[in-house]
Design goal:
heterodimer, A: 138 residues, mainly alpha, 6 helices, extended, B: 198 residues, alpha/beta, 3-stranded mixed sheet, 8 strands, 18% strand
C-alpha cells in the first residue's frame, strides 16, 4: 500500500515538474529562435525529443549513483553547451522583462543598443568566471 | 481645376524644426505642377509651449491643402494621424552616457548571474556533473566551468542574432522587434492622450 502511494506521489510530482519545465521553456521562446536562425523548423519533433531525453538523462544521472569514467576533456563540451543553453535562456528572460527598450529610450541611445547588449553578455561571462575562479574555493 | 489627391500620413516622424511642412508628415500622389507648391506648404507651426510631441491628424493636412487647392478632392489612403517628435534626428548619444549605461549593465549582469548560480547551487551541480562523468571528485572543476562561462556569453549573443545578422538580414532580431513594439506602445499612448488637448 505504501509503495503504491509513494509510486503515485513520485509520478505526479514528476508530471508536475515536467509540465512546468516545458511551460517555462515555451514562454522563453528559445527553441523557436534557434529554429528560425538555423532554418530547421521541420525538425521540431527532433528538438522536442532531444529536450525530453536531456531532462530524463539529467534526472537519471542525478538520482542514480553512476560514474561514467569518461576522460576529463568531455566535461569541457558539456560545460560549453550547457552554458550556451543557459545564456540563451538568460537573454530570453532579459527580453521578456523589457530591459533594453526602456533603457534605450530613457538614455536616448538607439544606434548603440548592440554595444549595450554586449555589455550584458560580457558581464555575465566575467561574473561567472570570477565566481568559479576566485570565489568558489573559499 | 478639380483633381483627386491621394494622401497617406507617415506613422512616426522625427523633425529638428518646429515648422511642419507637407511632405514631412504626408506622402501624396499629385501632379507635377502641384509638387513645388506642396513642398512649401506649412501644415502647422508648433509653439514651444506645446511640448515635443505633436499629433498631426489628416484633417490638419487637408485643411492646409484646401488653402492652396480649394477644389481638390482628397482621398485618404493609409494612416489618419502622424506622431511628430520634435527632436534632432539621429543625434549620436554622448560617449559618457553610453559608457555609464554600459558599466551599469556590465556589473549588473555580472552580479545577477552570480546570484542565479548561488540560487540554483550551480557550483554543487558542476562538481556533481564532473564527478559523475569522470569518476574523479574535483571541488573546482574549471575544465567544465570555463567553457560553461564562455558558452553563457556566446549563447546570449547568439540569441540576440548579432553574429548571424549579416547573413540573415531579412529577419529582425528579437531585440529589434522588442524595441519596435515598445515604441509602438508609446506612440499609441501619445496619440490617444494628445488628441484630448485642443
Amino acid at each position: 500500500m505504501t509503495i503504491a502511494i509513494i509510486l503515485f506521489l513520485g509520478l505526479s510530482g514528476g508530471l508536475a515538474t515536467g509540465a512546468g519545465y516545458v511551460a517555462f521553456i515555451t514562454v522563453l521562446g528559445v527553441i523557436p529562435r534557434l529554429m528560425s536562425a538555423t532554418k530547421t523548423k521541420s525538425s521540431i519533433q527532433l528538438y522536442e525529443r532531444s529536450l525530453v531525453l536531456g531532462v530524463v538523462a539529467g534526472t537519471l544521472l542525478h538520482i542514480f549513483n553512476v560514474h561514467l569514467h569518461w576522460p576529463a576533456f568531455t566535461t569541457a563540451f558539456i560545460g560549453l553547451f550547457s552554458g550556451l543553453f543557459i545564456g540563451m535562456a538568460a537573454a530570453a528572460l532579459t527580453e521578456v522583462l523589457n530591459v533594453f527598450p526602456i533603457l534605450a529610450r530613457r538614455a536616448g541611445v538607439y544606434a548603440e543598443i548592440n554595444v549595450l547588449m554586449m555589455a550584458v553578455a560580457l558581464g555575465k561571462m566575467t561574473g561567472s568566471l570570477i565566481q568559479w575562479i576566485v570565489f568558489s574555493p573559499m | 481645376m478639380e483633381q483627386i489627391v491621394y494622401i497617406s500620413l507617415k506613422r512616426h516622424v522625427r523633425l529638428d524644426e518646429r515648422r511642419i511642412s507637407f511632405f514631412d508628415v504626408a506622402e501624396a500622389e499629385v501632379g507635377e505642377e502641384a509638387q513645388p507648391i506642396l513642398e512649401k506648404l506649412v501644415i502647422k507651426t508648433v509653439q514651444p509651449s506645446a511640448g515635443n510631441v505633436v499629433i498631426v491628424t489628416v484633417l490638419d493636412v487637408i485643411h492646409a491643402l484646401k488653402t492652396e487647392f480649394p477644389d481638390t478632392q482628397v482621398v485618404i489612403a493609409g494612416e489618419t494621424e502622424s506622431i511628430v517628435s520634435l527632436q534632432p534626428a539621429n543625434t549620436p548619444a554622448s560617449f559618457w552616457k553610453i559608457a555609464l549605461v554600459w558599466i551599469v549593465l556590465f556589473t549588473g549582469a555580472a552580479l545577477t548571474i552570480m546570484n542565479f548560480h548561488e540560487d540554483v547551487s550551480m557550483q554543487k551541480v558542476h562538481v556533481l556533473i564532473y564527478e559523475k562523468i569522470t569518476g574523479v571528485k574535483n571541488e573546482q572543476p574549471l575544465l567544465l566551468q570555463i567553457p560553461y562561462s564562455i558558452g553563457l556569453g556566446l549563447g546570449m549573443i547568439l540569441f540576440f542574432n548579432r553574429l548571424w545578422q549579416k547573413r540573415l538580414n531579412e529577419e529582425p532580431g528579437p531585440l529589434d522587434l522588442e524595441m519596435f513594439k515598445y515604441e509602438e506602445d508609446i506612440n499609441g499612448y501619445l496619440a490617444a492622450n494628445e488628441k484630448d488637448q485642443p
